[in-house]
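haha ok so turns out i had the wrong file open the whole time. this is the CORRECT one, sorry everyone. sequence first:
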Amino acid sequence: MRQGDFVTRKSYGGDVIFKIERIERLKADLRGVDYRLMADAPLSDLAASHAAASVDHPRSTTPQMLEALRRIEKARQQLHDKNQSALSHKLAAGSSYFEVPGKVLHVDGDPAYLRKSMQLYGELRVPAEGFYIPESQMPDALYRLLPQIKPDIVVITGHDGILKHRKIGDMNNLGSYKNSQHFVNAVQVARQYERNRDSLIIVAGACQSHFEALLRAGANFASSPARILIHALDPLCIASKLSYTSVKEMISMLDVVDLTVTGLDGLGGVETRGSYRMGIPGIQHME
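then structure:
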């Protein structure tokens, strides 16, 4: 086994594919390929996973992700049709409009997940700026980035997980999680920058993150209510939906649950106003 190899854990029945991040003293630090999970395991517990070696990570071509992306595209088309219908009732035929979708700031503790997310934001025509930032550095980074980028939506994600060696029944303690405390600190910085949950929408967390603590810190949407693994692209799907939901409309998890792979066990949140605005008349260019 070497750093960079794709592996599964024998003791967990090979349920999740990981990439070896580091090896030290016959133990490997692992990062999930499709799920935002950090773990460690003895080398003796690892088995090579050749199935993962030739595919893009995280995978966006699974049936569940393809369906989620299709629904996002469909919702955007419905918004376009609604705008055109409104124009035809009020203005002359052929009148046009311009769009100002919500701008996303995406900070990610995994560079591969960030690259894939930025690719998909582009395909979905979501204005987004992304930064690879280790989870422990996210609070300081957001303190600098938020005034610079001025986003409508901020995604704070990376890897997380429940520590194996913790006190029994100590699930409410942030010290029982690999990175939940860092995510909470980052959310608090973002909420200090903008207190209104509709003016700055926050999507935060990763696999098994402390959902309740993230909501208390000020997140609109967070993982993971049932402390399960979430798909690497679930936060992107929620942010993309928010970017193309009108500021005149409120959405809840009921409106976005079918855009996620992991559903209500993986993500939850509070009712939130969209961040999309229509402008009239149409213009050629807009900064």
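The radius of gyration is 20 Å.
again sry for the mixup
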